[in-house]
Design a protein that fits this description.
InterPro entries: Sep15_SelM (IPR039992). The chain has about 90 residues and is mainly alpha-helical. It contains four helices and no strands.
């Protein structure tokens, strides 16, 4: 039953969003209902089109946080180490 409640909440928030028609920022609760996490970075929204998810881009941009670094900056580390504990 909780799953139906979540679906109804999502549908309600989605239709409210459609009625607003602007790209204003959504609240954290609204973003969660749409399936976006609070730590979503705006650079991630650009990748949606590559995966045929362009319909989600407006909602993504309404929920994302600005990236702290520039779009073209790439952080390079000298090496990486993966440890698996058995």
């Amino acid at each position: 039953m909780a799953n139906i409640g979540s679906l109804l909440t999502f549908a309600l928030l989605y239709f409210i969003k459609l009625g607003l028609g602007d790209s204003s920022k959504l609240s954290e609760e609204e973003c969660r209902a749409l399936g976006f996490t609070p730590n979503l970075l705006c650079n991630s929204c650009k990748l949606l089109e590559e995966h045929n998810l362009a319909a989600l881009k407006d909602d993504c941009e309404s929920c994302c946080k600005a990236d702290s670094s520039s779009d073209n900056a790439l952080k390079v580390y000298p090496y990486a180490e993966l440890r698996v504990c058995g």
